[in-house]
Every structure is written in C-alpha cells, then in structure tokens.
Design goal:
Layout lengths: L18 H14 L4 E3 L6 H6 L6 H6 L3 H9 L21 H10 L8 H13 L11 H12 L6 H7 L2 E9 L5 H8 L6 E6 L1 H4 L6 H12 L6 H17 L4 E6 L9 H12 L5 H22 L2 E6 L1 E2 L4 H7 L7 E2 L9 H7 L7 E3 L5 H11 L5 E3 L9 H15 L17 H21 L5 H19 L3
Parallel strand pairs: 1-2, 2-3, 4-5, 5-8, 8-9
Antiparallel strand pairs: 6-7
C-alpha cells in the first residue's frame, strides 16, 4: 500500500494548529475521551438491538440508513434508486450492494472536509480497522474487510453497543408505535440501556396526509375512540404513560415554527373536528401545533418527561423525492426562525417552573446569540440543545460555543446529541464533539478566561454530566 493510500486518522485532528492551544486541548480531551457515551436523542432502529442479528453487509449498515451520505451523492446527480434507497411504491432500485458500494467509493472524494468524512474516517479506522483510504480502487477490498468482520460475534449489534461504551441510547418512536422492539430488549435480559422517546408529530400535524389513519391507529393503541379534542389529550396522557413505563425520559417534536399559543378547549375542539373532516389549512395547523406545544409543556410538568422541540426545518423540501421515497431523505432544509415572540406564551406560563425542562434546538445559527442564549440564560425551564444537523460539524460546534457561552454559560446547555441513524457512527460523532469542545476550552485557557481546573470541570460537563442531568439519566 502506498503512503498516499494509507488511511491516517491523526491524533491531533480538529485541534488548533497553535501549539499552546493544541497542548491544552490534548490534555483536556485525554480526560474525557473514554467517558461512557450517553446518546439521548437519535434514530437507530431498535429492531437492530432487539434481534441482535449480524448486520447484512457494509452498504446496508453504513450508506443506506444515513441521509448525510446519500444526500451528498444525490446532489451530484447520482440517483437514489442507484444507491438502493427503497421506494414507497416498491418500484425497482439497485439491489447489488457491492455495486452501490463501488459508486460510494468512486465518489468518496465528495466528502473531503465535511463532517461526514470525519465520521466515516473514524468508523473505518477505529471500528473496522481499515488501513487504506476509501476510493474507487480500494472500494471492493474495503467492502470485503468490513463484510468479513460483520460475520463475527464481535460485530453483532449488542457486542458493538458494549464495545462503544454506550451507557444509554435513546431511539425515537411515534405516539402510535407499539414499542414491540423495546419490549423485546427489556425482556431479553441483556444489560444494554435502550430507551424510547415519545414523538407525536404523526398525530399532531393535522393537515398532513395520513393524519386520520394515524389517529385511528392511536385509538387502537389506547383502546378508545378519539372523537374530540378531550379524547385526543386523554390519548396523549395514555401514551406518554405507556412510553414512560417503557423507559422513556423525553418527548420530541419537529415543528416548522416554535410558535406557541393557548386555545380555549372549545376552539381546540373546533379545529380537531375540522381535521377529522379533512378541512384544515396551514393556519389551522399552525394554531393547533402552537396549542399542543403548550399542552406538552403542561404534561411534562405533570409526568416529568423532558420536552424537546426541533423547529425551523422545511421538511421534505424536494417534493418529487418525498413522493417517491418518503421522509428523511436528506431534503429537509433550514428556515429562518424566530424564538423571542414565538416562545413567549409557553415561557410565560411554564418557563419559570423548575419542574419543566424544555430543550430547544435550531437550524438557524443567527438565533443563537440574538435570541436563544438570552432566553436560556434567563428562564429556569429552558435549555439549549447542541448544534444540530447542518451545524453538528467541526466549525458549527465551534461557532455554537462561541455564540452562546458568554450569555448562557455551558450549564444552560445539554451536552451533545448525536442524532444518528447509522449505528457505527455513534462513537465517531461523540469523539468529534469531545475534541471540538476540548479545543474551544483550550482557547479560553490560553486567553486566561478560565484556568485549567475550571476547564476540566467544563470539559467533563460537556462530554458527560450535562446530558445525564438534562435528560434525568
């Protein structure tokens, strides 16, 4: 193997080239790099850990579940069908997983300098022991090496979970989900902590296609007909209790806007009746969702579940892709988002109550300094979610710390969420976060803003303590 083809994952990656900062960053990182991983929000399929069967092949493990990968390939004109992404109607797609992997290898250069490249380099090197760079020339050799390892007991899902030193992993399920795979995991006797998160988007988005079918399924799960708004809230209470009995510590909602507004029970029921008849519009949706956010905060105070919101994403922006392949295909695009006015109703009613933990995420970086840090730096209930999705990257994480720390400190933030779908990328993403935070803190030390003892406390908090405290883990 030539030197140019050798995969080198440098021990100083992501640290500042200034040697004084780098030295301190390395020391801080060494103190946290081996801490257990707490992953409080993500999208790993729980059936993987319930069944504990060998992963089928490298393509279905690494590429097909991960929209971070295939969205980049799609942006260069490579069709999703050719990458083996399943279609909604069962129309043909590529099923030769070696061929798909070859396409991946031929185009791996597209990821240079991106966080996906950083994660994958770590996965190939640290998880699978690959010693050569992925390219068109090495694609089949690397496929064979990973494929061979996947057949061994050491690479079964639960063995990898234990090897990754995962203390807790949260998956995300809809309100109407029966959580059968979580029950299987609980009943198996395995010691790995895998818990669910209650996400009611499918039954809250009253204008969405398939909403009525989701309500019917929710009725079936609850054992009673949902014919009114009161029934709907009763169903929420029922399902939250069930999710909590299965280990859930949190809820989550993906909302276009963080708008909050409290409707009267009468007006809420009028909107619900319109939805049952299929007569709602965008304005109705906004009001209904704004009211449900208020209800979710109230319920979280009552049952203790941590409340998360992920606003500011234009979901499924590419309509033809959504129509053919469904949601989560890499075409959710950030929106300019306002928080100060939109969250005022919720924060005025519930934000001063320390029993509520409201974790707010954003895709709109401009709002970090202008709105989110000042809000989280005041209201006891509100905490800032970490840099998410388009910003959970080397530069994005750094900007996040720079924009919020002076106003909110680090203790009004909640550590790191990996938001992962591709299971083997979990340790890579946490390692990147720990490196970036260590480097940020090293900069504070060299400028004498904090001393080394204080930086060590902050480093451990960001890597481990804050996430456990915020999510009550």
């Amino acid at each position: 193997m030539s030197q140019s083809n050798t995969l080198v994952v440098n021990e100083n990656r992501f640290f500042d080239p200034d040697l004084a900062i780098r030295k301190i960053a390395r020391e801080l990182y060494e103190g946290v790099k081996d801490l257990p991983i707490v992953s409080p929000h993500g999208h790993v399929d729980p059936s993987i850990l319930a069944d504990n069967k060998p992963f089928p092949n490298p393509t279905e493990l690494i590429l097909i579940p991960d929209h971070y990968i295939f969205r980049m390939l799609y942006s260069q004109g490579i069709s999703l069908e050719s990458l083996g992404i399943p279609t909604k109607d069962g129309s043909p797609m590529e099923t030769d997983f070696r061929k798909i992997w070859q396409t991946f290898g031929d185009n791996f250069y597209l990821f240079y300098g991106t966080p996906t490249w950083a994660w994958l380099s770590h996965v190939f090197s640290a998880v699978f022991g690959i010693k050569e760079k992925l390219s068109g020339e090495t694609a089949q050799s690397i496929y064979d090496q990973i494929d061979e390892k996947l057949k061994s007991p050491e690479f079964l899902p639960r063995a990898m979970f234990d090897r990754f030193n995962i203390e807790a992993l949260t998956t995300t399920e809809g309100a109407e989900d029966d959580l059968r795979f979580h029950k299987t995991i609980k009943d198996s006797g395995w010691g790995g902590k895998v818990i669910t998160c209650f996400r009611p988007d499918g039954v809250v988005n009253i204008s969405a296609k398939g909403w009525k079918e989701n309500i019917d399924l929710l009725s079936e799960r609850c054992g009673f007909e949902i014919n009114s708004y009161d029934d709907f809230i009763k169903a929420f209470e029922n399902r939250r209790e069930f999710f909590k009995s299965m280990g859930a510590v949190s809820t989550d909602q993906g909302v276009t806007s963080p708008y909050t507004f409290e409707l009267t029970k009468s007006d809420a029921n009028k909107l619900f009746q319109k939805a049952l008849k299929g007569e709602t519009n965008g304005a109705d949706q906004a009001q209904f969702t704004g009211n449900i956010l208020m209800e979710m905060a109230r319920l979280s105070i009552e049952d203790g579940l941590v409340m998360q919101i992920h606003p500011g994403s234009y979901r499924n922006h590419n309509q033809p892709v959504f129509d053919k392949f469904g949601a989560d295909k890499g075409c959710d695009i950030p929106l300019q988002t306002e928080y100060t006015r939109n969250l005022r109703a919720l924060l005025n009613k519930y934000g001063n109550d320390p029993r509520l933990t409201l974790i707010v995420f954003t895709l709109d970086e401009d709002s970090y300094t202008r709105e989110l840090a000042p809000l989280a730096g005041h209201y006891p209930a509100m905490k800032l979610g970490p840099a998410w999705w388009f910003h959970d990257s080397i530069e994005g994480m750094t900007r996040y710390r720079q924009m919020v720390t002076e106003t909110a400190g680090i203790f009004n933030t909640v550590g790191f969420n990996d938001d992962t779908r591709a299971f083997p990328s979990i340790p890579a993403r946490h390692d990147l976060s720990r490196r970036v935070d260590s480097n940020f803190l090293a900069g504070l030390v060299t400028r004498h803003i904090v001393d080394m003892e204080e930086a060590r406390v902050m480093s451990r908090a960001l890597a481990y303590d804050l996430v456990k405290q915020a999510y009550k883990l």
